[in-house]
Design brief:
This protein is mainly alpha-helical. It is 75% helix and 0% strand. It contains 14 helices and no strands. Helix 7 packs across helix 8 and helix 10 packs antiparallel against helix 11. The chain starts with a helix and ends in a 10-residue tail after the last helix. 30% of the residues are buried.
Amino acid sequence: PNATLAAIVIVYSVGLIQPGEFRAIRSVRTMEFRWAIVAALGVLTLGTLQGIVVAIVLSLIGLSSQAANPAVHVIGRKRGADVLRLYGVFMAEFYFAILVLWGVLFLAAFVVLRRRAFGLFAAVREPVMLAFATASSEAAYPKTLAMLERFGCSNRIASFVLPLGYSFNLDGSMMYCTFAVMFIAQVYGIELSLAEQGAMLLILMVTSKGMAGVPRASLVVIAATLVQFNIPEAGLVLLLGVDHFLDMARSATNVIGNSVATAVVSKWEGQLRPEGEIGPDLAAAITPGVPHRAGD
């Protein structure tokens, strides 16, 4: 788009000067021409820099995904089955903790929503599976919003609480970052006291806010946390082989946590409709409208 805009500016600036006017050009057109050239060069420069940044980001994404298999292969050759056993225990403990967290979220929903908590978890089953399969809670956002409105949440509440929760209510992301930091510390034989673990909890509560709901986004937060406790950042390589599988549970947990928060806030605000009732906003969205004619 920037290159196209630059071409338009250049063509327009050249069009200001007719073929027979190069010798007798007026000062106004000269200034107009100069400013157009400056604008065109600025747009071209911006487009070039933007292209370089995009190329670097895409290269890093491609290298990070391609580095996972060689890293696992090298470690597997050196350590053998012990490494696979270590990763297996790590993943099993993480998924067990995630299931416990799901139970806590269900209990919190049951305290406020009572029996409708079962209906809530059934309603968000599809977006949760979508987030789990894609390892991205952002991909499941539209489906989550639609299913929450169908469950009975007000569009006004859901449209405010759900996006806010995607930035500040990241239960699964914080759980994953905590497990990842502790895993790397234990691999390097670094003992963390209870005070340090408490400080790590507080740091992760702050640094995890605003984390993108895309695969491998948590690695940035983990790297920043490792520095605070003098844990080698090279330990991030140990996560590349299993990061995707852990991201799947992290993303699904974020969807569940935000869904529970949206339903609870709707209940507190008295805007949770009875089950099966369709609100006016949702009815207007799903009802075919009359085509608009010019002049009406």
